[in-house]
Specification:
By secondary structure, the protein is an alpha+beta fold. The protein has one domain: Heat Shock Protein 90, CATH 3.30.565.10. The protein is built from 4 helices and 5 strands. Strands 1-2-3-5-4 form a 5-stranded antiparallel beta sheet, covered by helices on one side. Helix 1 packs antiparallel against helix 2 and helix 2 runs antiparallel to helix 3. The two termini are 18 Å apart.
């Protein structure tokens, strides 16, 4: 089975909720296991909210392009934006050995993304940030067998 979906969002926080609805509808139609749906949803909330909050130095309208694909048991997504150059893989690390009160504020979202995804890759091409993520997923039927 192979299926794909493309999404274009504006750089407005209300778009995060819209994206969540689209992803839930898409993953439900494919009968993804609830654990896979949860992991994909939380990662996208983190990625898109951070792009919207921190990715642009001006207040004008920008777009975030998202391509989702499932091929067999591999979920892959590519997120492209024309925001400031930002490689999340080089950003602040969330030091899990420290008490929560002693940690820096940054880095927790990237920790979540790395925790739930098998692959996280970043490239800067021209004026675009391109983040590619993927992971093995489960379908509802897999949880029954």
């Amino acid at each position: 089975m192979e299926t794909a979906l493309t999404i274009k969002l504006k750089n407005e926080l209300k778009e995060v909720e819209k994206l969540g609805d689209i992803i839930n509808e898409w993953t439900s139609s494919l009968n993804l296991a609830p654990s896979s749906v949860f992991e994909i949803s939380i990662v996208f909330d983190e990625i898109v909210a951070n792009i919207i909050k921190h990715g642009y130095s001006d207040k004008t309208e920008h777009y975030i392009d998202i391509a989702l694909n499932i091929n067999e048991y591999i979920f892959t997504a590519t997120i492209e934006d024309e925001g400031i150059d930002f490689n999340p893989l080089d950003s602040v690390k969330d030091d899990r050995t420290l008490l929560l009160k002693d940690r820096d504020l940054g880095g927790r979202g990237i920790h979540i993304i790395k925790k739930y995804m098998d692959l996280v890759d970043y490239q800067r091409k021209g004026n675009k940030n391109i983040l590619t993520i993927n992971r093995k997923i489960k379908f509802i039927k897999d949880n029954i067998d």
